[in-house]
Design brief:
Structural class: alpha/beta
CATH topology: Rossmann fold
Number of strands: 8
CATH architecture: 3-Layer(aba) Sandwich
CATH superfamily: Alpha/Beta hydrolase fold, catalytic domain
Largest sheet: 8 strands, mixed
Distance between the termini: 30 Å
Strand content: 15-25%
CATH class: Alpha Beta
Helix content: 25-40%
Oligomer: single chain
Shape: globular
Length: about 280
């Protein structure tokens, strides 16, 4: 039971989205804000499970990715802040209704995007999987070497040839706009990612304004979103009540939170949303 739809971002850009419907009266609505370079189709199994549990769900692609991509990314102007301030913000606005609970399921960058939203007050709560700082220092030594090669060898060569980060050719995910690649590369120099970037004062202020309660789940085996990386980045949410959950599962990597072996975490997230009061409607 799905609906394919177009949601207009705050600047009018057309975003491809899918709404998963639940039989009968929904207990609330969840928006899934995905990870960098991960199209929404990856989250289909999770969204179907959530809908079967009684929550309707909206997945979408950020501009430049999946069903929201232009014919070519060469010359396409876009960065991470567009994904949060314009794209996710528009989905939150479109799915907000005073009479129902509205929550955010965030994967990796999706947890960053909460802090970019101009309308975070419309959310009753959020549950994050694998959100953390992208600083290579939080990663295992071998992963640090791989990231260095990506930023300084492979990435620049792909950008020089194609005009964007043509990641799909390497099987690393969806292709990414040039602006996203440049921001990602710059912010990865800082232990707290963009929070330590002296040019990003607006982001720091926006993070401090968020009061949406949330839970952040990170596995020790997650090379890109370890508990240490989480604590570094989420320290920017200075006025939000949040709880950290560390998972000691040796095979739970960065993409595995949305695979069947993590179904117990899905149950925990939905149980948490069940108990969460709908602050806005109250």
């Amino acid at each position: 039971m799905t609906e394919e739809l177009i949601i207009r971002a705050f600047d009018g850009y057309a975003l491809g989205a899918t709404r998963y419907l639940t039989p009968g009266q929904a207990r609330g609505h969840l928006i899934l804000a995905g990870a960098t370079a991960v199209p929404q189709i990856f989250y289909r199994r999770f969204a179907e499970y959530v809908a079967a549990r009684g929550y309707s769900v909206t997945t979408f692609d950020y501009r430049g990715v999946g069903r929201s991509a232009p014919d070519t990314l060469a010359g396409f102007v876009c960065d991470f802040t567009d994904w949060g301030r314009r794209d996710l913000a528009a989905v939150v606005e479109a799915e907000s209704a005073p009479s129902r609970k509205l929550g955010l399921i965030a994967h990796s960058f999706g947890g960053h995007a909460l802090g970019l939203l101009p309308n975070h007050h419309l959310l009753d709560g959020a549950w994050m999987f694998g959100t953390g700082s992208g600083w290579r220092g939080w990663m295992p030594r071998l992963e640090q070497l791989r990231v260095m090669v990506l930023w300084h060898v492979i990435g620049p060569l792909l950008v020089q040839r194609h005009g964007y980060l043509a990641w799909q050719r390497l099987g690393l995910g969806a292709d990414l706009p040039l602006g996203v690649f440049r921001q990602w590369k710059r912010w990865s120099r800082f232990p707290r990612f963009f929070l330590d970037d002296p040019t990003e004062g607006d982001i720091v202020r926006n993070f401090s304004q968020v009061r949406t309660p949330f839970v952040a789940v990170n596995a020790h085996a997650d090379r890109w979103g370890s508990p240490a990386a989480r604590n570094a980045l989420l320290s920017g949410y200075t006025n939000a009540q949040w709880r950290a959950i560390d998972i000691d599962a040796p095979r739970l990597g960065h993409m595995d939170y949305f695979r069947p072996q993590a179904v117990d975490l899905w149950v925990a997230a939905l149980d948490w949303f069940d108990a969460l009061p709908a602050r806005r409607s109250a």
